[in-house]
């Protein structure tokens, strides 16, 4: 697999995650947030374990430890996102959750002790401007929920960088599957501590939970580490900024929500950032 195919694969993951917003909205209508985390990642874990059961023969203590470590980070991402959505405005949550696009190159620069390239800096500025126009319809409110959203965005940046290192090994698939189980188990612990465990009450809610489990979690969090083997964390962060664009597109298709001028301008800026990065890479060749 070359870098272009890997990035297209990651774009498909962003599309899958773009559907998670309205699926989570449906799912949270009947069950608690930690209950939802436990269910979606539990479904993903069992589905992927059944498909790749023979791979468990290669399981080692080191692979298990990596899976547990990334699984805890995965839970922390959704701990921040779920609590952020519940304690702040949708505009604030949508924008601050997407600040991962800025955090990834900053953390990478600190680790490597080098500055990001001009191409990455320009692309990030375009993405941030686009994300603001697309998501911050009612302005940004810095409250408790905003802190949770930034926490989720930070841990997602950490997750991207950690997997950039782990994805170089041959045990990436097993790590990806194990992390789903760990995230589900951690969510279940929080569920029993702070919620009343329950199951979805309607077929619509079950459909949303299954969609979150099989498409957004099983596909998304197993394919991303594989794609990361062939591209950089900075580019993964930029492609991640496409998620709210896909979310808006799906909301328009299925919920008939209209973006408006600012929203469409924001979407164009985000696409421009990704295209600019690709064109710059071709010029460099």
List keywords for this structure.
285 residues, mainly alpha, 13 helices, globular, EmrE-like, EamA_dom, transmembrane, membrane, cell membrane
Structure overview:
With 285 residues, the protein is mainly alpha-helical. The chain has one domain. 79% of the residues lie in helices and 0% in strands. The protein starts with a helix and ends with a helix.
Give the oligomer, counting copies of the same chain as homo and different chains as hetero.
Answer: single chain
Total of DSSP H or I helical runs spanning 4+ residues: 13
Q: Radius of gyration from the CA trace?
A: 18 Å
Order of SSEs: HHHHHHHHHHHHH
Which structural class should the secondary elements be placed in? mainly alpha
Strand content: under 5%
Mean pLDDT: 82
Give the N-to-C terminal Cα separation: 18 Å
Low-confidence stretches: none
Number of separate structural domains: 1
- Determine the fraction of residues in helical runs and give it as a percent range: over 70%
Strand count, sense and barrel status of the largest sheet are:
none
The tally of beta strands, per DSSP, is 0
The general outline is globular
